[in-house]
Each structure stands twice: as structure tokens, then as C-alpha cells.
Amino acid sequence: MIETIVIGLICVFWAYLGRYRRLSWGFGAAMTILFVFLAIRYEWGNDYRQYIDKFTVYNSIDEFNYSDPNERWEVGWIFLYRIFKPFGFFSLVIVLTAFEISVYYWFIKKYIPKEWYWFAVFIYVFNPNFMLTQSSMMRQTLAMCIVLLSIPYIYKKKVIIAALFILFASLFHSSAKILLPIVFLGFVNWRMGKKGVIIGVVLFFAILLFKNIVTSIIENTLSVTGLGKYTYYLEEGKESKLESGIGFVYQIIIMSMILYYEKRQDRKDGLIFKITALSFLFVPLGFIAQLIARIGMYLQVSMIATYPLMIRTINNRIVRAGTLFIIMFFTIYDFFSFFNSEIWRDSFIEYHTIFESFIWR
Fold this sequence. Notes:
The protein is mainly alpha-helical. 66% of the residues lie in helices and 0% in strands. The chain has helices spanning 2-17, 26-39, 48-59, 75-83, 89-111, 117-126, 131-134, 138-148, 151-155, 159-169, 193-209, 211-224, 231-237, 246-261, 267-280, 282-286, 290-300, 303-312, 317-340, 345-348. The chain starts with a helix and ends in a 13-residue tail after the last helix.
């Protein structure tokens, strides 16, 4: 945990310096440091051991049947394993990290003013749903980054190209298929504002009130889209109970602010706001099924741009500073809660590098 905090603060500092012309390379330096930090990680994350073991298993098979209906892991991921067989699992992680950090670098540079680079890096590092959990769920992280690349084509209303990106992402994590409807968001020109806030809040609570109906719809969708292998996630989530409290209220308030301030954005940034607002509807869905919470992560990635853009457009200085403080406070709170969680603590509390391994895996 200490290593993560130190590296994170260093990167936020360099990203902040990137606002100055003479130090414009600061943001690039911050992302390079994050690349090295993640590329050389070893036994860091709940699923790391499973991924490295599967690398050995799949590469021990002389001829693999990629069309096996009983195979849970996607064909694209298994194909990556086979490609990197001569180079080792560590090489695969390094290459994937380079791609993923490059995508985030591109996304932040494209959508966020340089004065707010530091805040985007802060969210990426300290919000547990980004760098930390993404370093564990390698397949879905790759799929998420590919989906992120589809956003400019959604904005340009190039539906076919955007859909191809999402379908390509599904080769690495099948859940990406469920996101195909978002390719039509580029045609939604309705400005949100107060009406959007009302609709968003009503939908949020409607999902909670009619969770049995929503669960049935989800099960049918999984079956139709060929994702039946993920139905066990639904069974795991059916006994989940909604935890009320200030964190729940915080989610509703932030969603409402995003919907309200969407009307102050241009069309390009407005699309990012709409995608982020949709991700908040997966918060109540997440109480129904673990899989749905994971699908929401695809949309949640846009939050890295939405938060800085939203705060920038708040005219009242006190409200702007207060919103920034509240978001940072809850982000830090979630960060420390993550490391104290029984689910994540043991796998993340100590950072290890590939140099601790006796052999090149």
C-alpha cells in the first residue's frame, strides 16, 4: 500500500506540473512512471496467480479447440497466451500495460484541459475501481480500453466502426457485447439539465424497487447474447442487500450533478457525461448481481474525464472547491477501505515486482 501511495502522489505531482509550458512533459512522465509500476508488478492482485497458471495450462496444449462451447475464457485472450508463449507471461503483462496506459494517456490528453491532468491521474490511481482492480482483472481491463477507443466514433455517429471496436473487445471479455446499444448515443442530442436529474434519480430508485424484474431481463439478455456462462454471477448476487448510508447518498448527488452540468458542455464532452451518468445506474444493478457491477465499469472509465470537466464548469468558487474536496475525500476513503477489505487486502497490501521471481515466467 505504501508503494502505491508514494507512486501515486509522485505521478499526481508531475501531472500537475504538466500545466506549465516548460514542464509540459510532466504528464507524460507521470504516465511513464505508472507504466513501469504496473508493467513489473508480480503477484499483485486477486487474479494474478490464476492468470499466470492459466498461461502455463493453455500453452501446454499442442492444439487448442477455440470453438469449445464449455471454455469459459474468451478466444482472444487464449490466442494472446499462445502468441506470447515464446516470450513468457511477464512479457504479455508488459505489452498489455503499455497498451492500456497509452489508451488512458490518449483519453486524458483528448478530453481534459492540461490544468486538470493532475486530477485525472489522481482518480485513476486512488479510485480503487481503476488502477487497482484493473491490474487484477486483466481480460476485462483490455476489453475496457478497447471500448474506450470507440467513443470518438460514437460521437461521429459512425455506428459500424464503434460496434466493431466493441465486438473486438468482446473477444477478450464477452461481457462487452452488452454495451453494443451505446453506439447510438451519438444520436442523442437532448441536453440533460434539471429534467435529466429527475429522470436519472427516478430510474436509479426504480431499478432498486423492481429488482426482480430487472434480474429476469438480465438473465434473458445473457442467454440471447451468448453469455450464459456468466449466469453464476447472478446467483452470487441474488442475496446481496443494499447498504444505505452517506456513500449511497454521495453516489446519487454526484450522478445528479453530472446530469445537471451536462447541459454546459459541448456535444463532444456531453457524450462523455451521458456515458458516465449511465454508469451510475449500474450502482443499484450491482446490488443485484456482481456481473452487472463489472459491466458498469466499462462506462465508469469515462469518469476520469467527466469529473474534471464538471468541476471546471461550476461557476461558484465555493461550490467548485467543495465538490472537488468531497470527490477527493470519498476517493481517498474508498482507497483505504479497499486495502482494509478482506477481499482485496491480502493480494494488494504488499507490492511485488517480477525481479523477485527466480525465473522469467
